[in-house]
Amino acid sequence: MSVEILDGKTIRSFVEDEGAFNSSVDGRFAALDTNRDGLLSYSEMAKELMSLRVLDKHFGVDEAAMAPDELVELYRGLFALFDRDGSGAVDLEEFRAEMKEVMLAVANGIGFLPVQMVVEEGSFLKVAVDRELAKAA
């Protein structure tokens, strides 16, 4: 983890650079696709979401205080956002589209004023910051 300064423009610029954004998203997709079938199953995505403690870190939900069935329901809801065609699996295009929406929502939430934020190495936010720094150098 590192502390970085970023704003909505940095994130939007990353998302709009289709080559950089797709490369980063495609790499994450490939890492999650453990059986290499070109689709992400619920179990492949849920494992990642649970290991990152997404609900706790990003939504303020204390997973330890939740009943297991409630937790599964929340993760299934997140998965359904990615599974746009309702097929039960997420393909690369669905993953790209949802990640784009997520990143643009983060950019809009941050706004135009720079903020200091702790970001995880390898995260899309860290990639966006590193890309912006490389452009400035």
Structure description:
- The protein has helices at residues 8-16, 18-32, 42-51, 54-59, 68-82, 92-110, 124-136; strands spanning 2-6, 39-40, 90-91, 115-119.
- It has 137 residues and is mainly alpha-helical.
- The strands form 2 sheets. A two-stranded antiparallel sheet has the order 1-4. A two-stranded antiparallel sheet has the order 2-3.
- 16% of the residues are buried.
- The model has no long low-confidence stretch (mean pLDDT 88).
Tell me the strand percentage band: 5-15%
What sequence of helices (H) and strands (E) makes up the elements? EHHEHHHEHEH
Number of strands: 4
Report how far the terminal alpha carbons are from each other.
22 Å
Number of helices: 7
Radius of gyration: 16 Å
From the helix content, strand content and strand pairing, which structural class follows?
mainly alpha
Low-confidence runs (pLDDT<50, min 5 residues)? none
Shape: globular
Neighbour order of strands in the largest sheet:
1-4
Q: Average pLDDT value?
A: 88
Q: Largest sheet, described in full?
A: 2 strands, antiparallel
What percent of the residues sit in helical stretches (DSSP H or I)?
Answer: 55-70%
